[in-house]
Amino acid sequence: MLQRILVPVNFTTASARALAVTRDYHPQATVRLLYVVNPSDIASATANPAINPTHARDERNKAEQEAFARLERWKRDDEEMAVAVGSAAETISEHAKQWEADLIAMGTRSRTGLQQFLHGSATEWLVRHADQPILVVHDVELAEDQKRHLPPLEQTG
């Protein structure tokens, strides 16, 4: 029986669907939502060489707090949440090991050709290298009874 399921989220429809499927298939499991902050996002905010290291730390704290606020809107009362900074695939793998996850459940969008070559895929890397089994949920329409498990999706644009 799966007891600890890590669900990395990036606030896309695909990750929302992975969370919904996890909630539907494994209602008794402890679920932890994980958001990984990309270090280049913090670095771009502090790219000016005149900016001191304290500003970089402030930018990291700001990015982490924003991520926690977004995760709070997605999680249910009995779920856990975490934020980490690093390369998505390696950070997810390391977090899953440290937390002793039984499964990693991830959403994925279909990328092909040049798009896949340029952007890579954390999901693909984890399928090949993670120590835990990976549940991959494609960005497809969910069954009606699974939709009740979706987190509130944010409006863009």
From TrEMBL:
Domain of life of the source: Bacteria
Pfam families: Usp (PF00582)
InterPro entries: Rossmann-like_a/b/a_fold, Universal_stress_UspA, UspA
Residues in UspA domain copies: 1-138
Entry-linked Gene3D superfamilies: HUPs
Coiled coil regions in record: none
Family, per entry: Belongs to the universal stress protein A family.
Protein name: Universal stress protein
Species assigned in the record: Spiribacter onubensis
Lineage: Bacteria, Pseudomonadati, Pseudomonadota, Gammaproteobacteria, Chromatiales
